Amino acid sequence: MRIAFIGLGNMGGGMAANLANAGHEVRAFDLSEEALARAVEAGCTRAASAAEAVTGAEAVVTMLPAGKHVAGVYEGDVYPNAGPGTLLLDCSTIDVATARSNIEAATAKGLVAVDAPVSGGIAAANAGTLTFMVGGTEEGFARAEPILAKMGKAVIHAGDAGAGQAAKICNNMLLGASMIATCETLALAQKLGLNPQKFFDIASVSSGQCWSLTSYAPLPGVGPTTPADNDYKGGFAAALMLKDLRLAMEAAASVDADVPMGSRARDLYEAFVESDKEGRDFSAIIKTLQG
To answer: Which reaction does it catalyse (predicted)?
Structure first.
């Protein structure tokens, strides 16, 4: 299948490479020449522009920073150049309202669009083990699933247009809040004289067990290898967690939802990102909670 892939950053680069490795003809574009060169090395074909990538493509995958970027690429490059029935898969994490309006506009132009944000981070993007949360019609999901499956371990139809984004921001609000709870609990355990690994051994098989502890422990040398073992480099940047928490707060306000834990997590990550000059993983917030 001829696939246009627009946005080859930390996540998109690995995703495009996996599509190429699966035998698809991937025409890739990014504003970064370095990112584009890596995609070519991974088996993608270089496109001189997003418009060139889209022309003649059967499917278009976008992995961009924010809703305004996705809307801009759709309006400026995708709609004028995509053929009738072209499948659009937006894997960016953006606000629900923009995702819905993008899909509505694409449908009106005779295209088939889904929102398909991801969970899993850079390592999963490179390994092809992402989880995709997909919003759109049954037809759109049926066409998108075989493509997404080449980049992920799980592809789940969350519901109608925008449901993928809703699932993503709710999931990451839970992750952000649970990581803070995990970090402050480990910090308390240390101050109470508990050996961190011993506490991990207990909590990971007790009622306090959670993904932030057992799969992503924020202390080096505790549990499985995580970004904490690499000086909090790699993984999921705190700035991206903050972005998702802000999106969650916007969504909560739009439906008058009470989210005190999510709101507090947003505030704590805002303070952490402002003070952290190294762009570290979101689990590095334990440094703040340790005092």
So the answer is: 3-hydroxy-2-methylpropanoate + NAD(+) = 2-methyl-3-oxopropanoate + NADH + H(+)
